[in-house]
Structure formats: structure tokens, C-alpha cells
Amino acid sequence: MSIDLKVPVATLGFPRIGRRRELKFALESYWSDKSSADGLLAMAKKLRAENWIEQRDRGVTKIPSNDFSLYDHVLDTAVMVGTVPSRFGWKEGPVSLDTYFAMARGSEGEAGGCGHPGHLHGATALEMTKWFDTNYHYMVPELSDDQAFALSSTKPVDEFLEAKALGVHTRPVIIGPVTFLKLAKSTAEGFNPLALLPKLIPVYAQLLRRLARAGADWVQIDEPALVLDLIPNEQEAFRFAYGRLAKAAPELKIMLATYFGALGDNLDTALSLPVAGLHVDLVRAAEQLEAVGRLARKEMVLSLGLIDGRNVWRANLPAMLEKIRPIVAGWPPERIEIAPSCSLLHVPIDLELETALDADVKSWLAFAVQKADELVVLSRALADGKNVVASQLGASARAAAARAASLKVHDPLVEGRIAAITGDMRRRQSAFVERAGKQDKRLGLPHFPTTTIGSFPQTPGVRKARAAHARGELSFVDYESFLKKETAAAIRWQEGLGLDVLVHGEFERNDMVQYFGEQLSGFAFTRHAWVQSYGSRYVRPPIIFGDVSRPNPMTVRWWRHAQSLTAKPVKGMLTGPVTILNWSFVRDDIARSAVCEQIALAIRDEVSDLEKAGARIIQIDEAALREGLPLRKSDWASYLEWAVGCFRLASTGVDDATQIHTHMCYSEFNDIIDAIAAMDADVISIETSRSRMELLDAFRNYRYPNEIGPGVYDIHSPRVPPVEEMLDLLILARHRLSDRQLWVNPDCGLKTRKWEEVRPALLNMVEAARQLRTQAKSPTDAQRGERKIHA
Predict the structure, then answer these.
(1) For 565, how many CA atoms within 13 A lie in the half-sphere containing its CB?
(2) Active-site residue list
(3) Residues in Cβ contact with 715 at an 8 Å cutoff, skipping those fewer than 6 apart
(4) Is residue 433 part of a domain?
């Protein structure tokens, strides 16, 4: 079945995980039993087919292919052009599944399953970081200054032909060469991967010719780098690349896709390229529509990103039509496409799976398939003067009006608290140099204190008990008893291991954001609205639909239980306001900064209650602070001012002797080190193992005064690093920071790992800290307060 539309509808990309997370379970089955490769590939093929047919049947006319990935589309691109680092043992030809996943996850044992002899402890994975300013992670390609490229995978061609065999004509999607190189990491100091563009373009040209021979008439080339700050030679790189690609297969038309922001000063560059179409994001940058419509060549197809591909709110279609009709009316109708702002990868698949959501909240939402439906309604409304979709447009307008007026959204008490915030509520009582002495005296920790980031493995037993309790099969009393036993076992194990600062393990928590959101007002939660974070790691982001407040304490009871089991300090563990904001689907009717302040007040209340209960260390994780940074530097100052202000609002209402920790993920700190310092956390833990402590250079150059826990092993990989490897990293850290500043900890929480990986890794970590103390000639019982504290 198909729907004939005069204004074509494109989706740019579609969620690939399956309605019931079928891809996750197929991946995990393969990782545990390599004989299940056929099952994994069969499931991947099934999911691709379902996506193509569903989009076709709903009326999408420009259906993407090659938007599917077993793990990550940037990793797919790296494999496609033959950029497999030598440690994985690949030389040429097809890249095996084992090598592919070793690049993503690292490898274990001699050869590590990647065919490379001599690696006793396997090969380390590629670095992982955030895809622009989204919550999706990509694997960072590694490129040397003498990098060679070769077309080592024909995945885009294979999947185009796969869809064609099903009777679905698709538009293949590939990451553009300039964006690919800008996302890559150079293995040679001072070398810019963009210099490799002349060597890379022939491989892309070869791929385009193969697509054309396979019958493709269009190809979507994603170049989101065009919304970044580009210097002249980077703008010239686009002209160089597309001048050659346009000639590689003249019969194949290129839709150049930009998203996540405005083209801005790159608009002239984008419009000068010899491409047949241009996609622009009109959700993040509605203001660019007028200039694009006025300056673009009339023979160019304009793809208008009208529906939000990164949030879950239902569109107000009549209001949208009113804004875009004047532009569309002045453009040849055959030269217009409508689409989401970006790939629908970033939203859940189908709202209809949510049978337990509040009816009002559900009526305000749209997931991937509903967004496709909205685009089809818009297409019909634009093309038909009789307005045959009046009923759908009317329903859209009524939903928008109901949401704006709902008492579920607006709380006068919250508005009053926001109005009462003062400057003193964002400042600690004393400077760090004074606080540090009081904290050392109270805590009595050794040099290079050891701790973990917070969570311990969520074993099958933990997940099974949680699910049984949710289904009513395990009573509240029995579930509580189970969780207390798990917590007690974790405390005893940490004490036996010799960790200095303990955590309770978070066995009662489903997710670091969801757990808090479920106890705050203004949040809604789903059962099946999964989105991909990385690989097989999927999350169900909370939906912030209304004003936020904290009705009751959220963590005090579990912290008090854990602390009662040990004399060592147990950290109170909280998620920070900026991370809760950035890892949620946020209401779009007020400013994000205003929502963040509401959350910050709720977390401030929890911090106060933990301190009153006796907590000596409270960790407020801001794993996502940097990922909310705007893509354009001109917008950074405003974001950082309110983001840091919200962290301080949440964290500064404590006594000097209470130590505030925070944790941050995937953060390049050089360009925001002032803001990191302004957070004024007593201790910050960061992910540094994959970058071999390079991220600490920012703290060294800045002369950062507070304390830092640089991660010494990569928790996103199953491999167990040896003591020597961790010790080497700590020695590198000592070259960058003073001994007084250093903590020893993993890169991140251990929730996703197995105990058989965690136990030996932490044992090695504690031993590495012990050896470091010996090397530093500091007695293991030396108290940190006995040493001079440097401001």
C-alpha cells in the first residue's frame, strides 16, 4: 500500500532498535554466544524490512536506507572507508563482526577475538562521545597522518538492494566526508584529519557510482558539520568535496542534509555546492527559512525540517501551516519536500504502545510513526486547497490548546519558589581552600583516595526482582528485603576490597534520571518508549510536561540504611538538574533554563535532607552538562551561565565540611574550563581512560584548584585492565596534577557491567592506588589534612 502525495514526505532516518528492543536482545545474544551470528543478521534484516514497509504504508515517499546500524552509523562509515586501527589486526577485505564489535567495545584475552596476536589483554575500543548535542553516542574514528582509505564495505548498496527486492525504492543515507573527518580523531599530534579529504573523496565517489549502478536516483548525504562554526578552509573543504562528488555519478542526485541548528554564516557555502537538494532544520532554526527560500536556486529541491525529530511533542499543525505557506507558495511545488528536523533516531518508535500513560499527556505527544503521520497531513494540507485534512488539523489545534491551559502543567507554588531565588542561594559559605581543610579533618582519607562513581552491576537477579515487583509477583516487603541484602553485600565487598569511599550500589534504581523523575511532580514515564544511547544501551527518557517539584525525600532512606552498615563514608548519590534536563524530553512551552531551575530547587531540597541525615559526601552527577552546550560558540556563554547556576543552586546549601562531588562524561574541558571551575564542586570525576589522561591538560593549564578523579579504566568495555595499565594512567595524571588533587576511580558507573568484570577491575584499581602511594612515598595511613593545601 502507498499514498500518493504531491508534496513528498521524507523521514531522513528511522529508529532501528525495534518496537520491543529486538536488536538489543539479538546483539547481547551474539556477544554471549558467537554462534548466534546468523540470528543477529536475520533480526537486523527483519527490522530493516519492517521499517521500510511501515514508512511506505504510512505515506512516506522518500524512505531512507542505510540508516540502520548494528551498533553505530559513524562506526559503519569508518569500516566502510577502511579506517580500522592496526591494533584490531585487520588488513584488507571485509571487516568481520568480531572486529567490528571489538572496535566498538574492546576485546578480551589474547587476540581478543579480533585476529590480532600478541594483545594479552585485548584491544581497547575506539573512543566514544556524543553525536553533536544529542544524547546519542558515536564511536570516534582514529586516523593517522598517512591514513589510507579503501571501500571496505558496500553496506549502503547492499541495503538499497535489499529494500529494492521488497519493492521499496529508498534514498540511501551516508555521512558526508567532511563531517566524518571533523568527527574523527588524529593519532598524530597536531595533524588535522581534514587534510585527508583528497584521499577520502575517491572512496566516496566509488560508492556513489555503485549506488547509481544499483538503481538509486537520489542519495542523502548528511553534513551536520555545516551548522558548526567553520573557518574558511573548512568551508572550502565542502566546495572541494562536492565539486568532485557531483561529477562522480552525475545521474545520482544529492540531497545535502543539515540539521541540529542554523546554517548561519555557512549558508552561502551550502547554497554554492553542486547538489540537487538541501535539507534545513526549521525546528532548531526556524529563522533561516526566509533566507534559504530567497537565496536558493529555484532548480534546487528544498527539504523543510518542520517536525521536531528530537522531542516528543505533538505539533500544532495549523500554526505550522500558517508560517510556512507563504514560503512554499513562492517555490515550485515539485521542488519542495517536508521532513522532520533530523533523523527520527532520537525519538521512541510508536506512541500506541503506551497504554498506561495519562490520557491528557498522551494526547500531547507524537513518536516516530506519529511524526510520519503528521508530515503526511501537512503534505496533504499544502497540496490541497480544499483542505481535505481539516479534521486532523482541528484535532492538532485542540490538543495544543488543551495542553496550554492544563492545570497539570502549571503549579503556582513552583512559580513562587522560582521568584524567591537569591544570589546567596548559588554560593558556598567559604572558598574551596577553607572547605578542603574542614573536609579532610572530618573524612580522614589517605592520599589518592579510591571510590567508584556510584552504581554497581544490575545483574539478571536484580532486574528479575524489579520486574517481578512491578508485575505484583513480589511483595513490597520481599522486594525491600532483597534490595537490602544486595546493598549489604555491596558494602561488605567494598570494605573487604579496601575502597576508601563507598557507594550503596543503587540496586533500587532503574535509571539515574528515571529514578528521580518518578518521584518528582511534572514528569511522565513510558513503558516502551526506548531510544538508543549507544550500541545495545537504550534508555526511556522521562517526559517533563509540567512544573517540577519534590513532594518527598527520594534517596535518604536508602542512604541511611547503607551508612548504618559501615564506618566508612558512603556517598549520597544524586543526579544533577542539568543532566536530568538534558536526558529528558523537555517541555517546549517555557525556556529550558526555567525548567532547569525548577529541578535544581528539588535537588537542593534532597541535598539538604541528606546532609541532615548525616551524609559527609554527596555526589551530584552532571554527566550531561557539556553535551547541552550549544553548537555555536556565540551561544555558549548564555547556556553555561544558567547551567552552572542551576548546579550551584542545587549544591551550595551545605556546610563547608560536607564534600560535594560531581561526575561528568565525555567532556572536552579545554574550552569550558572556566565554567567547570565555576561549578565549585569539591571533587569532580571525569572519563579519561580512553584518551589516556589527555583531558587533564585543561585542568593543568588552568591551574584548577579543586580535586579530581580521572577515570583509570573504561567501563564501556568488558575487558579488565591490568594493574600496570591503571598505574601508568595514574602516573600520567600525576604529571598533570598535584598529588593533593588526585582521586582514583573508574570512568563511570558500573551498572552495565558484570560482576565478573567489575570485581577484578576494582581489585586492580585499588592495587594501583596502593602502588602509587608507595611510589609517592606517602604512607597509606597518611591523612590528607596533614599536607599543605594549595589554593
Answers:
(1) 21
(2) 716
(3) 746, 747, 748, 749, 750, 752, 753
(4) no
